[in-house]
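Quick entry between incubations.
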Amino acid sequence: MKVWDKGWVRFRIHVVSALFAVGMAVMLFRAFQLMVIEGGRLGAMAREDYTGRVKLPPMRGAIYDRNGRELALSVQVWSIYAHPDKISDRKQAAKKLASIINEKPAEIMTILDPKTKFAWIRRRVPSSVAEAVRSAGIEGVVVVPEPGRYYPAKELAAHVIGFVGRENQPLEGIEKRYDEMLRGDQGTLLQIRDAHSRTISVLGPDRLEQGTHDVVLTIDNDLQYKAHQALKEAVTKRNAAGGHCIVANPDTGEILAMAVMPEFNPNSFDAYSSEARRNRAVTDSFEPGSVFKAFLLAAALEEGAVSPETAFDCENGSYSIGGSTIRDVHKHGILTAAEVVAKSSNIGAIKMGMRLGYEKLARYLKRFGFGRKTSSDFLGEREGFIRDPSRAKLIDQATVFFGQGITVTSLQLAMAFSALANGGKLMKPIIVKKILNEHGETIKENHPSVVRRVITSRTSDLVTMILEGVVSKEGTAPLAAIEGYRVAGKTGTAQKVDPLTKRYSDRKFVAVFGGYIITEKARLVVVVVIDEPRGVSYGGVVAGPVFREVGRWSANNLGMDPTPAAPEAAKDIPSAKEEAVDPKRALVLEVADEIRSGTVPDFTGLSMREALKTAYSLGLKTVLKGSGFAAAQEPEPGTDLRDAEVVTLTFNPPLEAVVNRSAVKR
Amino acid sequence: MSEGRFREVPHYDYTILVPAVALLVIGLVVVYSASAHLALYRIGDSYFYLKRQAVFALIGIGFMVAAKNIKVSFYEKMVYPLLILSLMFLIMVLIPGLGHKAGHASRWISLGFFSFQPSELAKFALVLYLAQSMAEKKSEMAYFSRGLIPHLAVAGIFLMLVVVQPDLGTAVILGTWVMMLLFVGGVRIRYLVLLFIASAPVLLWLVLRASYRMKRIFAFLNPWDDPRGIGFQIIHSFLAFGSGGVTGAGLGDGKQKLFYLPEPHTDFILSVAAEELGFLRLICIMGLFILVVYRGISVSLKARDLYSCYLALGISSMMGIQVLINMAVVMGLLPTKGLTLPLMSYGGSSLVMTLFGIGVLLSISSQAKKG
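Done. Structure below.
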């Protein structure tokens, strides 16, 4: 009997068949709906879900010193994070993690808060730990490579370089200022992730390849090291609150070293207070004290208000002005302008300043770069304060003449001293020498840039001559003298304003020495500031030795030839250093022998500086007229020295360039 | 179609064999794609599931060829021994120590190399019994006592044993299937309606007393209310289908198998196939299933006797129901239920028994032509 003979069975089978047909039709339609009609929307949702976007903090560019030594570089480190909400067995995960990273399981349990979607377990682990975590394959735990920042020089130049935070965000210094160059483009890495947030495959970086740039600083690591060590030693020895030391090339404005105390290690920057991380050489302005007399002298000479020989009555150490009494540490009677600076007489400075006029001084100070920022490369740089002439009372003016009532930064001082050293030009300070692209090609270079000429090179030479006296045995800073080199400089010991009493403290001082080393071919400016030294506070005693140590070491290191080119100068320099500054002392003590047997030499043809040197070495006072080379003299050559106390020299003005060159080179 | 050309050769019904083998091969490929990542994480060998499935496929083909060459009348003598054997297995599953637990349910008996799923054997025993018994009773099927009670009693015992595993879903599917066979066998429709009405409260009670069943129902009704929780599975199945689009992500390039889909190589194999192969190829897969099921039904129509007819219909409708329900589940038309897709999903017992069933269909088909 055939089944299909039974119509009812056949019919019922067809009913079942039809049910399946309807069912399959529904399935087909449903598939069409899900895949074709809603495919785009669902597909996009799926992609959103499985595509992990990992922000790629790019490998920051490196920061080098001028000789290519690494000051800041990027290294690959590993970090471990978790998606606590995706961990089913948190206890087990915590236990496993704990054993690998050597931590208490309970600690990790608190990190693995199931309500959170993301939690760092540990940042910056060595690759061995990273590998162990990865091979443990713990659900919801991910190991990612991260670029870390490492500062191999540690504390050296840390205040200049600055540092980046944990997320490589720039926080201070060059790191922050040049972040745009250093960081390159923020990249995003697209990854395929499984439901436990494990990376399955990498779709590739979703980034615009701009690359990172390296920054080359003008800092010389060796000089920086020396400046750092010497400064640290002095700050420690003097139990000081802090200090700064800047070494600069006055001819280019390049900062070769910028050391700041207290120090900090940028590799663990968060272990230090923000006080320690501040680049005080630019962010702190202070009253410079007597150092400022160097600039008063320069302005007064340039304006012709005084000559080195102009005599001032120093009132035996006590002088009333504007209702206040100014006292000198040492009582002086009559001093020449040169002596006022060399012996650092405040009363002499006031009289010199009054002869120049406050308004003119203020103008010169501004031209020397005080009262405004020097550069945009230093973050948080202070402008300093110069009292406006219209608002300066007599006593205000008087204090400015000897460096109180005015504030400056160490960097401003370094640039102003550079102007004295380089023949009168204010240079723009350079800290970034050049910027390299990822192929090491220079894409930007900072060339020396003259902001303005402040004083003539003649004045510059004159000031240098006089400042050389400061480091003589009779000056205020014999401890700053460096054998074999000509050194010009000025000390300063400024009273600080007590923040509580708002008056000058008699215990808190800033000890300053600013100066420069001169050779035939090169010059070097060093500014040392010691903040609040305990005990002895004199700039010459506290800051001077740092200047000498840093200066001597730097000059040697840079190969600055200590032997002067001019043969006569070679003889002259040692004595000049001692005698030039203090003509009176020289006359009495050391020149006595020569006076008995000597005659007035022939000055003609000498440059002003050579003439001055010669005159000083013989104990002769000079009256200088004109500029250029000596053309006439009074008294005549051959006159017995005992009959000649003052020699009047007349200079012929040649082409200024010639003067400059000869003055500079000699 | 191919019947003409291959008439004299071993009388294989290629309209069933070819789509079935095609599905088997597609299944192997998709199983590998779906399970590689998972296998690598769980076992450390991305080929683990593929290798096992290939072995099962070979065993299954052996069973299929054997079944093709066994006359179906042979099984008539086996009905009661098989019924008793599968009942024993179903009881053994429940005995702690013998049954192999997966999650909450005891559905397997561990045999070392693989775990045997007694409910697969039970299905075959049940269809044999029903076919034999219904064919024997013929027109008496219309009587309540003769047509309904004995079958209901036997099926009821099986269903109960499956429910207590607990595997309510399989029980419901088996119940539906039994009712469908009884309907074809001649049981009056009003009895079936009454049966359906009577079973509804039991079903409701079973669902309400188990919170995980409630959850599944809620997840089915409102998957988007808790996309990270109870809706996670089904939403990711939607996303798999959506990602597939018209042309698919490409074989191996699916993403939802990366632990987003709960069981990418078993229950949700079709989602993986949809994502990687796309709508057009999914239609082809569905077409192959339709072909197998409808060729099976047409075999039942052409069968030489009522027993063969019922047997063929039982086997093909079982497959059809599983295919429909699995598709409905992965496309969110039914609550999530652990049910594999015949021929494609990973799973030894299911694959071997399905291929065996196809062998039986081939046998019936070849006998029908001879007769």
